[in-house]
Design a protein that fits this description.
By secondary structure, the protein is an alpha+beta fold. It contains four helices and two strands, in the order H-H-H-E-H-E. The protein has a two-stranded parallel ribbon with strand order 1-2.
């Protein structure tokens, strides 16, 4: 996790989104999983708490930059975008109002 003044939560990006969607899958299967999840201290768990438990209206700004440190992981922009769209679908399934802006950095 990181911090930017005026922003509620700043995370790494794709790896956080991957973990977040895993958490949602576990939560969707067993709503009591949330009790375990809130004890975790990673960025994905914090993001889950904010997005799925607290937020009602969400504005996403997804950058298009790639982290050069992760080139060995074969992460591409399309994979990142598809994961973001999957997350948005999951949030909407939970009744959240979601707006998204994809932009290049």
């Amino acid at each position: 996790m990181s911090a930017i003044q005026g922003i509620d939560l700043v995370t790494e990006g794709l790896l956080t989104l991957q973990k977040l969607t895993e958490y949602y899958g576990d939560f969707r299967e067993d709503r009591l999983y949330y009790q375990k999840l809130i004890k975790k201290k990673d960025g994905a768990a914090e993001l889950f708490r904010v997005l799925f438990a607290e937020a009602t209206e969400i504005n996403f700004f997804f950058g298009n930059a790639l982290n050069e440190n992760y080139t060995a992981l074969h992460i591409d922009r399309e994979k990142k975008k598809n994961l973001a769209l999957k997350l948005i679908d999951e949030l909407r399934e939970e009744g959240k109002q979601v707006k998204i802006c994809f932009w290049c950095v």
